[in-house]
From TrEMBL:
Species classification: Bacteria, Bacillati, Actinomycetota, Actinomycetes, Micromonosporales
Name the UniProt record assigns to this protein: CBM2 domain-containing protein
SUPFAM superfamilies: Carbohydrate-binding domain
Region listing for Disordered, in residue ranges: 59-133
Organism expressing this protein natively: Actinoplanes couchii
Low complexity: bias regions: 73-125
Organism domain of life: Bacteria
Length: 237
């Protein structure tokens, strides 16, 4: 029994080596067919085995075959695990700065410009003195006239209730070129076309006759074209 044991071991090595050589030969042949290696003249590919592999197969000392892909355990990582481990870049909504509605400018804050004008009742009232009543009445007439001169007579009456002075303004045509030579009961001034008479204080209800003498360049009778009295009326006859 002890003598047959080495034979069985040697036989097992030979069988295992032959099977390994056949397997390697098939792998080499497939590699040659796929890579398009050397071929015979008739187009058939040659199967070349490495010398070291053939010798090892004959001696029954082939190296162990590398593990196949099915024997290798590849760590698998589930997609869900990766997704759960990856930090989320999302920012919570509570950290987003929000502007309160009350911070926005409102149109009601703008100052309004008032275009209303102050009413007349608020402005200070001015007391305007009424014009004096027409209390002086004057009547103009020509008492004498000659070639280069004339004499006037004016009746002045104070129809008011208070004493007052008077002023009479006479306007003659500019062509007459009137020049005053003297006056009575009043002061006379002015030459050319305008003569002004100023009288003293005339009591209420009182009257006075005033007049003046003047030269003229017109041979015709000369009369004033207008007669005005301050605070009264004037009539030319």
């Amino acid at each position: 029994m002890a003598k047959h044991a080495p034979r069985h071991v040697l036989l097992s090595r030979v069988i295992f080596g032959s099977a390994s050589a056949i397997l390697l030969g098939l792998v080499g042949w497939v590699a040659v067919r796929a890579g398009g290696g050397d071929a015979e003249p008739d187009g058939k590919p040659l199967m070349v085995l490495p010398t070291g592999v053939v010798q090892a197969a004959a001696e029954g000392s082939l190296p162990p075959l590398p593990p196949t892909e099915s024997d290798q355990v590849s760590p698998s990582v589930s997609v869900s695990a990766r997704a759960s481990r990856s930090p989320s870049p999302s920012v919570p909504a509570s950290r987003t700065p929000s502007v309160p509605a009350s911070a926005s400018p409102s149109a009601s804050v703008k100052p309004s410009k008032s275009t209303s004008k102050p009413s007349a009742g608020t402005s200070p009232s001015r007391t305007v003195a009424p014009p004096p009543a027409d209390t002086i009445a004057a009547t103009y007439s020509t008492s004498a006239s000659w070639r280069d001169g004339f004499i006037t007579a004016i009746r002045v009456v104070n129809t008011g209730t208070a004493a007052r002075d008077f002023t009479i303004t006479l306007t003659y045509p500019s062509s007459a070129d009137v020049e005053v030579r003297g006056a009575w009961n009043a002061s006379a001034s002015g030459n050319g076309g305008t003569v002004t008479l100023r009288g003293g204080t005339l009591p209420a209800g009182g009257s006075i006759n005033v007049g003046f003498q003047a030269e003229k360049r017109s041979r015709d009778l000369v009369k004033p074209v207008s007669c005005t009295v301050g605070g009264g009326s004037c009539k030319v006859s």
